[in-house]
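Below is a filled-in request sheet from our internal design queue. Each sheet records the structural input a requester submitted and the sequence that came back. We keep these sheets so that new team members can see what a complete request looks like end to end.

REQUESTER: design group, bay 2
PRIORITY: normal
MODE: inverse folding
CHAIN LENGTH: 271
BACKBONE (tokenized):
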């Protein structure tokens, strides 16, 4: 620990910065596609469904966030697993939101002028200027819809980040030095408290990931928390059969010592 998350608009230079930082600091790095593949392998969920949850904007008719959030918990668990034994740079989309609440996460936002981005898209994808602009605007629009739908937030809000860097005005190397200095401060040194928070977050997301694998246990009104191996479940489920299946599933998750059940039986939404 720590974890550095790098969020960026497409063709803003964020991936190049992540790769430079990984070399500069000796940290492993993880992109969105790699994280999706790891999550599908670790938790036995559909790569297609997880990719759709991460990439696709909500359709007009889609009203509930539940299915997406369940799959995103799998992705979060996989990212935390990667960082468990050390440090990590995550340069996939929405890392700052997936890891919200975790201590010692440095949330970086990389921006660039539209002309900078257009030129990068033309160069890297062989697009015309018009097509490059259309592509960038579509991706930005989709990401804005995705973030607002799931979190009720504007992904471009600087308040969501610890540091905003414009790569049009600073080199990748110098930007990397700024981040390296910041992550070396005492705020990012592991403590027993931060390690416990890390382990609790990992376990609660593991539980969510296990529940997300089975249509019968993917229930929208469940809340999961973990404290030193003790998992607490709150909310409601539709039947005694579902409740028993959920408790059995949670009890088998690696790291769970005991389960405190506050689930009621009543009306619920299933996906």
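RETURNED SEQUENCE:
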């Amino acid at each position: 620990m720590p974890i550095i998350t790098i969020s960026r608009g497409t063709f803003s230079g964020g991936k190049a910065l992540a790769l430079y930082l990984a070399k500069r600091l000796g940290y492993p790095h993880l992109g969105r596609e790699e994280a999706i593949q790891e999550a599908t392998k670790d938790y036995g969920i559909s790569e297609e469904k997880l990719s759709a949850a991460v990439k696709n904007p909500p359709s007009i008719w889609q009203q509930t966030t539940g299915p997406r959030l369940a799959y995103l918990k799998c992705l979060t668990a996989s990212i935390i697993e990667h960082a468990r034994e050390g440090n990590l740079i995550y340069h996939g989309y929405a890392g700052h939101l997936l890891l919200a609440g975790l201590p010692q996460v440095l949330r970086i936002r990389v921006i660039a002028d539209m002309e900078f981005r257009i030129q990068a898209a033309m160069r890297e994808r062989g697009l015309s200027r018009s097509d490059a602009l259309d592509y960038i605007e579509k991706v930005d629009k989709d990401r804005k819809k995705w973030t607002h739908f799931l979190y009720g937030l504007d992904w471009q809000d600087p308040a969501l980040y610890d540091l905003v860097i414009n790569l049009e005005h600073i080199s990748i190397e110098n930007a990397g030095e700024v981040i390296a200095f910041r992550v070396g401060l005492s705020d990012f040194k592991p403590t027993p408290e931060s390690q416990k928070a890390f382990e609790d977050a990992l376990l609660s997301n593991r539980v969510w990931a296990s529940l997300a694998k089975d249509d019968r246990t993917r229930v929208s009104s469940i809340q999961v928390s973990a404290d030193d191996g003790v998992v607490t479940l709150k909310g409601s489920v539709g039947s005694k059969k579902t409740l028993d299946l959920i408790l059995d599933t949670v009890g088998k998750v690696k790291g769970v010592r005991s389960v405190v059940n506050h689930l009621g039986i009543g009306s619920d939404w299933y996906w």
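SHEET NOTES:
- The chain has a mean pLDDT of 87.
- The first strand starts at residue 3 and ends at 8.
FILED BY: M.R.
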